[in-house]
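Sequence in, structure out. First:
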Amino acid sequence: MAETLFNKLSRRDTLSEAERLALLEVLGPERHVPAGVDIVTEHDRPDHSILLMSGFCARYVTLEDGGRQISELNVSGDFVDLHSFVMKQMDHGVITLSDCVIAPAPHARLRDLTEQHPHLTRLLWLDTVIDAAIHRQWITCMGRRTASSHMAHLLCELYKRLEAVGLAGACVMELPLTQAVLGDVLGLSTVHVNRLISELRTLQILTWSQGRVEILAWDRLAELAEFDPTYLRLQCEPV
C-alpha cells in the first residue's frame, strides 16, 4: 500500500528498486484509524513521522475560542509530518477526515536512511519543500483570491495531487470532505461553501455528489482559479 508514495516520488524522479525497499524497511506496521481522530497533536514531540497510506487528513491550528484553520489537506502517499524528524516539536495538529490507513516511520530509521541513501533523502526533502510551496499558494488564495477562485484553486490542486498518486483520472476524483471541513480550509461559513459549490454546478463546471467530483470543464475551472501547477513539481526532473 506504499504504492501511492512510490507513484508520487517516481513522478518527480527515477526511484530505484533499492530505494523502494529502503522506504518499506523504514515503515512500521500499518494502523487503521477512523475519521475524526488526531494522529498528530499540537505541541507534541513525536519520535516518528507518519505516512498516510490511504484516506484524507488535515493539518490544522486551533485558536483559544475553539476556531480551527486547516492549513493543508493530505492525501494518500503523503508523509503528513516528515518535518517532525528535524523540527522536533509540532506547531500544529493532524486529524483524519476519513477512515485512514497510516504507517509510522521511526525517526531513528529515517536517520539511517538519510545516511545511506542520499538521492532518496533529496527526494523526501523535495516533498517537504513542496509542502511549503502548497502553503504559499494557500496563503495567496486566502489573502488575495475571491471565494469562488479560492474554491476552484483548491479543487484543481487536489485533483492534480490525487492524479499524481494514481487516485484520480479522466477529471474524476473521490473527495469525501464535508462542507464544514471545506469551510475550515477556505475560512468561510458552511452556507457560503454550499453557495460556491452550487454556483460551480450551475455554471456546469463540475458535478459533486456523495463525495464524487467530476470536473466537466477543466479549462474553465483552471481559468477561474488562475491555476498554475508549477508549485506541485509534477514533472520528472532529477534531484
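Second:
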Amino acid sequence: MEIQKLISELNYKAVRSSGAGGQNVNKVSSKVVLSFDLKISQALTEEEKTLLETNLSSRLTADSILILNCDEDRSQLRNKDIVTKRFLELVKKGLIVQKARKVTRVPKSAIRKRIKNKKNTSQLKQSRRNPDVD
C-alpha cells in the first residue's frame, strides 16, 4: 500500500454543516466529505482490495465506494486533515488479517468446578428455606 498514491486517489467535497452554529453555518462550507472508490484504486493490490472489501463491507456502498464525513472543526482544512487521518487508520485496520481461531474443548476441571459451584449455591438456598412442619 502506497500512502501518497492512496491519498492522491481521494475525492474531497466541501459541504455546509448541519445543526446549530448561527450565521457561520449558513455561509461557510466547512464540512468535508471524503469518497474513495475501492474498485478503481491503483495504489492497492487485488489481494488488498478483496481484504478491504470483506473487512469494510458494512461501510462501503453498493459500488464499493467508501464515504467518510467530518464536521468537527470550523476550519475546512482541519476537517480535511481529520477525515484523511481517519481514512488511513480505517484502511490500516482493514488490511489486518485475522488469525484463525483454534477450536478448543472446555476442560473437564472447569466443568467440575461449575457443577460444584451450582451445588453449593443450591445447598445454600435450600438451607434458607423454612423447615417443613407436619
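Remark: The chain has a mean pLDDT of 90.
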